[in-house]
Amino acid sequence: MKYTFKKNAGFRPARQAGFIQAALLFGIALMTAVLGGFALANRSPTSQTDTEQAKVNASVILKQASDLRDGVARYSSDFGSSSIGAMTFSNTGPQGLFDPVARYASPQIMPSSAFNTDEDIDIKAPDTLVAGHWYLNKATIGSGLATGSADPMVILPGLREDVCGRVNTLLYGSPTIYASTADLDDWIGGTDGGISGVADIAGWPEGCVSTADSKWVYFKAVQEN
After folding, report:
1. Please, what is the end-to-end C-alpha distance for the chain in angstroms?
2. Pair 105, 97: CB distance under 8 Å
3. 7 Cβ partners below 8 Å, 6+ apart?
4. Rounded distance, CA 64 to CA 114, Å?
5. What are phi and psi of 153, to 5 degrees?
6. CA-CA distance, 75 to 96, in Å (whole number)?
7. Are 105 and 65 in contact (CB under 8 A)?
8. Residue 192, φ and ψ in degrees, nearest 5
9. C-alpha angle with apex 113: 110 to 114, nearest 5 degrees?
């Protein structure tokens, strides 16, 4: 028995293939245009990527500073608040904040993208005043904090200006950076950072300021005296 198949007059494979190819080419062209525009936008130093990076770095700074203050609080619960004068950033007990037995706190390491160009961002071994990227300053008198005595602080120096401004925005709703009267060496060397007379930051237990030699430094009082 023979079977007869009728030719489907409505089937046009050549035209459908051409339509699919045209759609693919259009999609590729559109994607290329979008990616090209994205790349062009990100060539600017004020791009959205840089802004988001500054936000992330500022959040990390606040988190690490909070962790260090919590460590100081644990230290104080063991030795008393008056013992902060003997506390160091070393890993040697009993005065060391990073004592591996007591484990009050751990050295904090920041992403390199948080720091300004040409700053010293080497990771420091625990010592008297420095560990990781952070410093301990027990000589700076805060502005409008409790009494006129020095307020022990943790310090993060050498920041990018936009990161510094973002920290203040997160804390106080404004990117304004006020100036201290001391050089950066005074902050990290453990001498007065010169913010007691800066009325604009009165009452700030933490924040980011510029130094007399045009650097940017974050501070957080770990004990208000």
Report:
1. 107
2. yes
3. none
4. 13
5. -135, 155
6. 9
7. no
8. -60, 125
9. 60
Residue with tokens 């230290």: 75
**Which of 57, 154, 162, 54 lies closest to 104, judged by CA?**
154
Query: Residue 88 and residue 69: Cα distance in Å, rounded?
Result: 13
The whole-angstrom separation of Cα 92 and Cα 94 is 6
Q: Which of 200, 87, 198, 215 is nearest to 157 (CA)?
A: 215
CA count, 13 A, side-chain hemisphere, 52: 4
Picking from 164, 143, 219, the residue whose alpha carbon sits closest to that of residue 186 is 219
Mean pLDDT per 10-residue section of the chain, whose length is 225 residues:
50 53 58 47 57 95 98 94 92 94 96 94 96 97 89 97 97 97 95 95 97 97 91
Token digits of residue 43: 């060539």
Whether 102 contacts 78, CB under 8 Å: yes
- The phi and psi torsions of 128 (rounded to 5 degrees) equal -65, -45
Give the predicted TM-score (pTM) of the model.
0.78
Cα distance between residue 29 and residue 10, in whole Å: 31
Q: How far is it, in rounded angstroms, from Cα 171 to Cα 173? A: 6
